[in-house]
Structure formats: C-alpha cells, structure tokens
Amino acid sequence: MEIRRFSVIGAGQMGSGIAQVAAQSGLEVALHDLEEDRVQKGLRGIEKNLKRSVDKGRITAEEMAQVLGRIRTTTDLKEAAEHADIVVEAVVENMSVKQEVFRKLDEWCPEHAILASNTSSLPITEIAAVTKRPEKVIGMHFMNPVPVMKLVEVIRGLATADEVYAEVEALARKMGKTPVEVKDFPGFVSNRVLMPMINEAVYAVYEGVATPEAVDEVMKLGMNHPMGPLTLADFIGLDTCLYIMETLYEGFGDPKYRPCPLLRKYVKAGWLGRKTGRGFYVYDS
Ligand code: NAI
Fold first, then answer.
1. Mutation test of ligand 1: which of 240, 242, 243 has the most ligand atoms closer than 8 Å to its C-beta?
2. Among residues 11, 158, 165, 282, which one has the fewest Cβ atoms lying within 10 Å of its Cβ?
C-alpha cells in the first residue's frame, strides 16, 4: 500500500511537529484538534518553524508555501479519519482519552488504514484492544522537537502485523527519520531510561541536595548532556513526565519508579513547564 494521506490527531507540540514533517516529505496531511483555536495555534507553530528554515536558507519561500498547501486543518474527527491511509494520534497522554479516540478512528477510518499512536509510554496493546483491527495498530513515537530529532521508536503491539511494521518503518524513513524497533513494555526504551533520570533529578531538588540550576549544570558539564534533566522536563511538559512515571510505576509495580512528590505538586499547581510559562524555571511567554 502506498501511504499518501496522513492524518494527525492532536495539534499540540508533538502533533504539529509530526504534521510539519509529514507535509515536508510530500504527504497530504489533515491536522485535527478539538477546537479551532488549537488547530490554528498548531498551524502557526508550523508556519513559524518553516519561516525560520526559509530565513536560514534551508528551504525556499516557494517550498514553504507548497508544504503549507499540503496541510489542511479540521475540528471534525470523522473528516480527518475518513480519507486517511494512516492516522498518527498525538493527544494527551491518558489511556481513556486515547482509547476513545481509537474507538472512533476504528469506526471511521477506511479498512486499510493504519492507526498509530505517538504515546510516550502507554501500552500499544491496550490501545489496540479497543479496535477491531489490532494488527494495524502500532506505536510511532517521535521525539521532541519533531522536525529536529532523528529517532522514531516503532513499537510493536502484541498483535501488530509484520507488514504493518514494515510499512511504518518505511514511512519513518521517508519522513527523514531513523526507526528503531522496540517491543511493547512500559516506557518502551526511550522513556524507561530517560524518565527515571528526570525523576531522580526532581528528587535531588525535593531533598534539597541542589538547586535546579545546579542539577542541570552537573549533568551538562559532567555528563555532556546537551540539556540538563530539569530543563528537558520543562520542555517535555511536567504533566507528561508525571503520566510517564505513573505508567512505569503501575506497569512494572516496582517502587523504584515512584513519581517524586515535588513533580506531583508542580503538576497540581499547573506549573507544567514551558507550555504554561513556569515549571522548574520561569519563562517569558
Ligand atoms: P500537548 O498538550 O502539547 O498537545 C495535546 C493536544 O491534544 C492538545 O492540543 C489537545 O487539545 C489535544 N487533544 C486532547 N484530547 C483530544 C481529543 N480527544 N481529540 C483531539 N485532540 C485532543 O501534548 P504533546 O506534548 O504534544 O503530547 C502529545 C502526545 O505525544 C502524548 O501522548 C505525549 O506523551 C506524546 N509525546 C510527547 C513528547 C513531548 O516531549 N512532549 C515526546 C514524545 C511523545
């Protein structure tokens, strides 16, 4: 099957990045979110990114117009589903919300369509179980920021068919990414390794071992990380970090994955990181 029509559900930081990269690789993209202002915000983010590429001479203004011409926005999920060869879901990291989206996608998408989730940690097998096509459900986990980061973790659910895996792997390559195959266990590989490190950094602040600035400095200068773990946590979103820790904790039943109380407190306060202007650091806008 040739994948030409690519729908993205959720126009937040990940969904808009995925839509941009898909359109840049020549696919016809539908970008969906619940409300008009959210899809417009996603689209503005894409325009801003492309404009920066034009200013830096990486693409021409004409190419930018062509890419934007391949993206249409919609608040109607049925409309986004009906014409898709593949749908990539990038809504909030919450199992019941994702399952509800997949139930509807399964009902409205053409029979041949692949249903992929960009989930950071939730079991693909459990998402697939609410559909009548679990063999066509797969994890396609892009990294943030999508236009920059090369990796796509491709996650096989228990029932994912080999040919579906092969199609998604080829698609990731077409989008200029490097796919890596991972089985469906909590946190996959990326977040199973990354998130406990971030959680431990939060514990170091919680226990008064060091300030956020000091923790980040140690990891940048000492371990050669391009970004400190708390800066990275703010960038990912503290709500997403907490969801992932909860998933690891629940999925493995091991106390080593317990989320730090300070992380919970920040999320309850609405300090979600960059996207709300405050997390471990304060941001201008
Ligand atoms: P975000 O909060 O920026 O965007 C989520 C979007 O989904 C919002 O615009 C929201 O309105 C929309 N949404 C919520 N429920 C919806 C529904 N039922 N139908 C349609 N749209 C709906 O979140 P972000 O960071 O883009 O994360 C999205 C997904 O990507 C999550 O599963 C997250 O775990 C995953 N992810 C996040 C990464 C990160 O660094 N933030 C990295 C890789 C994956």
1. 240
2. 282
